[in-house]
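Form P-L/3: holo structure prediction, ligand zinc ion.
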Amino acid sequence: MGKPIKTCENKECEAEITKYKSDKRKYCSDSCKHRANFLKSKIKNRHHNEWLKTYKEQLLLLRIILKRGRNRIRLTTLEDLNFDLGLLQAPSSITSPAYRIGEYIIQKDKQDDNFCTIKNVIITKNS
Ligand SMILES: [Zn+2]
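OUTPUT (holo model):
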């Protein structure tokens, strides 16, 4: 009984593999094997890359807000700017929620929880 014909699992190739020693063989060649693994890791990392892109955009946003001399800002304004608090490091305390993103801490205003304060936690060397 002959072995069934397999097709190379590299989606860019899909060549028929007519001769193989092991049933575990998935690719027609080593280069197809590497290519397929590369494509797989690219798909796997895509979500992470998107997350990183958004994260960097949000850091930039905070930098712009602070540059304009504003450090107290309405939460809805942040939301309007597409800011996603869900991306941030979870608050360490429920009574005084402070979110950390990069060098910034976003803390909800104690008097008015419609507002939050943005603080840069890195002390500038010049001061
Ligand atoms: Zn192949």
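COMMENT: The helical segments are 30-67, 75-80.
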